[in-house]
Amino acid sequence: MSSSDTESLHRTVTLRRTDSIPTSSRVRHVDQLSEEALTRFLEVVEAGSTAVREDMELADGDVIIHTGYFYVSYD
Q: Where is this region: Disordered (predicted)?
């Protein structure tokens, strides 16, 4: 595995509440996430934390609908 592969595995995703949805965003409801991604997403939301692992199958710019809108961005 190259160092760039290792670095990409260690990136984090930030979830932040938003009131608006960019027109370029893919909008997904929590019911559309895999069981593993949903579990991780809910853990982060319930803990009040914003950093989650990249392997949650979320893309930069996605908006996830849960109890509000959560915008996904990569750090």
A: 1-27
